[in-house]
Amino acid sequence: MSTSGGAPMDLLERALACSTADEVEAAFSETREGATRFANNAITQNVSRRTASITVRSIIRGRVGAASGTDLTPEGIAEIVARSEALARVSEPDPELLPLPGPQSYAAETHWDPAVEAATPGIRSDGVREATRLAAADGLKSAGSFTTSTLGAATANSSGLRFEQQITQCQFVMTAMSDDSSGWSQSVGVTLAEADPTACARRAIDKALLSREPQTIPPGNYTLVLEPAAVGDFFVFLSYALDARAADEGRSALSGLRESVVGTPLINLYSDPDHPVAPAFRCGEDGLPLGRSHWIRDGRLEEMSRGRFWAGKTGLPFTGKPANLVLAGGQSEIQDLVRTVERGILVTRFWYIRFVDPMKLLLTGMTRDGLFWIENGEVKHGLRNMRFNESPLRCLSRVTALGESRRTGRYLPCSMPALRVEEFQFSSGTAF
After folding, report:
1. Under CATH, which architecture does the 8-206 domain have?
2. What is the Cβ-side half-sphere exposure of residue 202, based on CA atoms within 13 angstroms?
3. Which of 155, 278, 300, 407 could be disulfide-bonded to 287 (CB atoms 3.0-4.6 Å)?
């Protein structure tokens, strides 16, 4: 990993050398992304984007100031450091401030594919052309993107801590559309091979064809089969409620529930930055290493996330915030779960999810791009989309079957299975 201003650790060392603060921490972040976008069965853009920045946190007599910038020249870095120190001098003392940690040990696993870094617009365009050809052959329009990314992070502080890591990510996503239906699919992973445009396109096309002439059903509680993308976007909100301090202070939907049963015995939820399917950066707050944290084990809320200050105050281990989210799955395919449903609904994905009541972890949102009626174990026809009012916490106790896990996640890297959930509450229909 290198930048126009030098290697990341060299840039951070330069920042530390400029500092006159009592303590200083510098963090580097970089994204290199190539994207081929398409719409109406034609490529519309080939885009290359690079963003790199440094954030400096200066500590002066118990006061903290932070500043960020994208000018990575020596002069630019010196200016970032100076701004952070100026802010520290005028800030109020931080009563929860802890000394910066010293050198740490980090896992050595790599989550890197050279083929992703070397991927050209031509390689991405070949995959897109085949996907759009398949859509056109079935009389459908398609839109989506093929993206290859390299992500870099590094941290250094005046107490000797040094951290650096790179991750690659490759994603193909496609929506296939007719006049009255749509179907969506996604392939995402660490390696170029995991983004399979042809297979992804066929899934989206099949959904769009099957959901033509959608029917309307009344609002109510239904048995659902949630595909992994829907599970990831819905249950990621649970990770926001895992904060131990908020729970201990009575500000969380999980207040008073630690060590309580919150789900069926099928539920095992954890975070692990070195998970092979959904890896994340293994450096957390103040550069401390993140390990595996098992939040829910066999349906029981076993652990909650704690920062450095709250860990010290409670005498419990530091966990850091969830860097990713993994819900352990089973071996069943989605079709196997469908076959167990007498009357219910298959959900491809959700969108526009928002909080209704954070203290109950109550969410609202809508289905999108593939909603289907299940009867006697078979998908019968498409449905008009529905709006839900539901809580991931409530759903944990209504999970009755798990499918095979897949990489997904728009907000955090996730590995999620398909789920069968009972009594999921749809509050109304939608206009599309």
Report:
1. 2-Layer Sandwich (3.30)
2. 3
3. 155
